[in-house]
Amino acid sequence: MTLIENLRAEARAAPESGIVAVMNRGRGRDGMIPLWAGEGDLPTPAFITDAAARALAGGETFYTWQRGIPELRQALARYYVRHFGKSFVEEEFIVTGSGMQAIKLALDAVAGKGDEVVYLSPAWPNFAAAAGLAGAIPVAVTLDQSGNGWSCDVGKIEAAITPRTKALFVNTPSNPTGWTADRETLQAILDLARERGLWIIADEIYSLFHYGHGRAPSFIDVMADEDRILFVNSFSKNWAMTGWRIGWIKTHPDLQQVFENLVQYSTSGVAQFMQRGAVVALDEGDAFIVEQVERARAARDLVCAILAETGRARFTVPQGAFYLFFAVDGITDSRAAAFDIVDRANVGLAPGTAFGPGGEAFLRLCFHRRLDQLEEAAHRLAKWIRTA
């Protein structure tokens, strides 16, 4: 028996990232325009990094609160009051070592070996992979796609539920599709979860990257205090902090100790000096978020206009997040297409095959970058589309 055969089956089955495979193909090429990863091109702003640097220089390098320093949990409560219009307290928040860890801890809390977790697909692949690592079974329910855009049929979610189902994972606004649930859809999903006694893991990381009026609808708008909802989130997108690896869980105060224990036995907390930067991001970063969203809106409109001119690109203008998920007439293998685009157009995209059922024919483009670079990338892509 080989070494790898002695590992847990769940570890052996963890999939290679289909996004990273394309990134590895194109890394280091001269003139490459990388639109494959889910991040913008702006570094973390100085008002955030300076706060972290001061704390680091001041010696804040010791063990700290497992659940997050009080100042950060209080800042999270203030942030939610501003953006969600209800009263929140620091006991509702747990600081995690990234949004990914928040998802992992939420899964650890509600699902284990043999349990099923239903999620909407196409989806960011890390959730299904994390569920598999926990021994749970991820069950995909595909969003519907038509000329009217992406939509969620709650009846399909209901049909996917079995006696083994423990939770529903809902990401809205969605990575990669940009689908954004309206309040009525969120209410219908919540009603279903209540009826079946299920948890909801709500990934609302892009709620402020919404191109309608204000933030996107949230489960917070329709829930009651005792509903079984775990909100997972991250500092990565709103404040250009992808490399910091810091996030949070919002949950009922009664569950705070449980989640503190889960943090203790995984990472034992987030560095205190990093948390100081996160406090400032929350308290002083609203204007930066507005600027980022408007920048992304202009970028979205530019890319959509150029690709639409080809007559072969099929897409729905995204309502939220900062990705264009598009298909090209005649192209069915998006993985092969992504490699060909790297080679012939020198543009990096993520293949739709990486995002699970319903995404196979699509490509994901992150448009959260400066306009001149995006314009060049879009024209290269348009040329590729016309000759593919």
Characterization of this structure:
It is a single chain. This protein has 388 residues and is of the alpha/beta class. The chain folds into two domains: 143 residues, Alpha-Beta Complex (Aspartate Aminotransferase, domain 1); 239 residues, 3-Layer(aba) Sandwich (Aspartate Aminotransferase, domain 2). Helix content is 40%, strand content 16%. It is built from 13 helices and 15 strands. Strands 2-10-9-8-7-3-4 form a seven-stranded mixed beta sheet, sandwiched between helices. The protein has a four-stranded antiparallel beta sheet with strand order 11-12-15-14. Strand 7, helix 8 and strand 8 form a beta-alpha-beta unit. Helix 11 runs parallel beside helix 13. The longest helix is centred in the last third of the chain and has 23 residues. It is globular. 47% of the residues are buried. The mean pLDDT is 96.
